[in-house]
Task: inverse folding
């Protein structure tokens, strides 16, 4: 397990170094995007239009935060990760189209995302689910917000500047290793033993 | 102060306590797991969870951004003077909590999008669970529960011949199906019997027992213990990373069933099992039950 600091814009060679199980801390721009924002960004692509912020080399954060406006300035109240598996539907398309280098979320992602990470050069990192205040402390500035009126607070694009956001565990690297796949394979092997412990035959 | 106003104030306070101050038994259980953990990934995840709970308590902020669909459990004493008007007081409290704490607006209207207030347009959200009891007081419980763990809860209708063994298997399979998605280590509430909706409600109420307390029925208590061991043997692990605890506790509640079916509700909670409970006397005295205040 190696520890890295990654500064945005992150280059392809920076993420190719990472291996599943490594720990990263993020410095720079993180953009929140959940179901609706991914969907909208990909719709724009089909229409040949550009999203309002450049995702290349940035960190996509699966997060629907609580935000508060204090004297015309947005501040983070709580900003933990949301379940990433919902984004498995289209994260591969998103990675190929917009080339973010790090996706941060919780709950893991599947084969399609892992394949896109391998092809394009990106990683998926797991941040502790529910650790919304550790996340908040690392977010030093809210740079911008897009699609707030249309998508609402949890679903819109929040553009954050982070100072050592982490620890984020690299769960899918760009070489085809997926810690969540490994866990599920082990879980299946463990299931008969679990039945036995419950007194089942 | 007018009694309705006391109810409203208390409900706001219960939401604030619930989202920012995790019940101590859960904190203790997580600390105990951390103490005996040696794997670096599991340690780092458990440390982050505990550190996060500490910050939430010290700053009175929501420990997790997903504060769920707002719901209250009401035990209404038949001689408590505010009855039908409780709904209005709790709706007001929900709106206030949304901006005052604040908590995330999570009520999404089917046609107009997020209402921004946590109050639904059909008058159903915040959801209220009513019980009328022989007393002159009101007991109110706030239980914010996130969407991640709600999405992995499960419901089954087993055949009567499957019996208790079928129930055990169904609970283990439900947690396996939830896998990494709902923020383990989980607390699992199981409701057995009744009908389709009844078992889910009972499963949710089972969570409110808190952790470390066994069912009074010895047979059920034994099954609860077996299931804790069995589910941890799946090794889904903390945050689904394959290391550390998978489940903190399993609480089962039972009720009579229809001869033709075994309804099982498996209500899964993330590690942040949040609730706060208070009693309001008819003269407006508030006593917090789940937390010291």
Result:
């Amino acid at each position: 397990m190696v520890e890295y600091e990654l500064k945005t814009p992150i280059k392809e060679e920076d993420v190719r170094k990472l291996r599943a199980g490594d720990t990263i801390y993020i410095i720079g721009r993180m953009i929140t995007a959940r179901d609706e924002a991914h969907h909208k960004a990909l719709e724009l692509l089909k229409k040949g239009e550009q999203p309002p912020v450049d995702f290349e080399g940035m960190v996509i954060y699966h997060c629907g935060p609580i935000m508060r406006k204090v004297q015309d300035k947005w501040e983070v109240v709580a900003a933990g990760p949301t379940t990433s598996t919902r984004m498995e539907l289209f994260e591969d398309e998103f990675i190929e189209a917009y080339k973010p280098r790090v996706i941060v979320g919780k709950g893991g992602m599947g084969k399609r995302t892992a394949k896109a990470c391998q092809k394009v050069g990106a990683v998926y990192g797991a941040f502790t689910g529910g650790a919304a205040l550790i996340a908040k402390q690392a977010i030093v500035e809210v740079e911008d917000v897009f699609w707030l009126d249309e998508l609402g607070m949890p679903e819109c694009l929040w553009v954050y500047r982070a100072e050592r956001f982490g620890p984020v565990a690299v769960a899918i690297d760009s070489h085809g290793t997926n810690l969540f796949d490994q866990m599920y394979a082990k879980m299946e092997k463990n299931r008969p033993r679990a039945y036995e412990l419950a007194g089942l035959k | 102060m007018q009694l309705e106003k006391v109810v409203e104030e208390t409900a706001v306070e219960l939401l604030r306590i619930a989202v920012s101050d995790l019940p101590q038994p859960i904190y203790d259980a997580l600390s105990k797991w951390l103490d005996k953990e040696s794997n670096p990934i599991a340690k780092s995840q458990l440390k982050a969870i505990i550190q996060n709970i500490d910050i939430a308590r010290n700053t009175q902020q929501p420990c997790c951004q997903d504060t769920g669909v707002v719901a209250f459990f009401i035990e209404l004493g038949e001689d408590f003077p505010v009855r039908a008007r409780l709904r209005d007081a709790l709706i007001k409290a929900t709106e206030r909590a949304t901006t005052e704490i604040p908590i995330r607006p999570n009520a999404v209207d089917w046609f107009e999008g997020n209402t921004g207030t946590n109050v639904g347009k059909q008058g159903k959200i915040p959801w209220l669970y009513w019980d009328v009891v022989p007393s002159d007081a009101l007991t109110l419980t706030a239980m914010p529960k996130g969407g991640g763990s709600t999405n992995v809860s499960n419901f089954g209708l087993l055949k009567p011949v499957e019996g208790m063994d079928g129930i055990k298997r169904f609970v283990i399979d439900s947690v396996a199906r939830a896998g990494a998605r709902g923020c383990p280590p989980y607390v699992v509430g199981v409701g057995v019997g009744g009908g389709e909706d009844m078992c889910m409600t009972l499963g949710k109420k089972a969570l409110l027992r808190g952790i470390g307390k066994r069912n009074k029925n010895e047979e059920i208590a034994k099954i609860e213990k077996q299931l804790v061991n069995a589910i941890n043997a799946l090794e889904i692990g903390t945050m689904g990373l394959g290391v550390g605890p998978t489940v903190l506790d399993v609480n089962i509640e039972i009720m009579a069933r229809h001869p033709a079916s075994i309804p099982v509700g498996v209500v899964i909670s993330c590690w942040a099992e949040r609730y706060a409970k208070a009693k309001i006397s008819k003269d407006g005295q508030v006593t917090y039950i789940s937390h010291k205040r």
Summary: Chain B touches chain A through 59 residues (CB under 8 Å). The helical segments of chain B are 3-20, 24-36, 40-59, 86-100, 147-150, 163-178, 196-207, 218-233. Residues 39 and 171 of chain B are 27 Å apart (CA to CA).
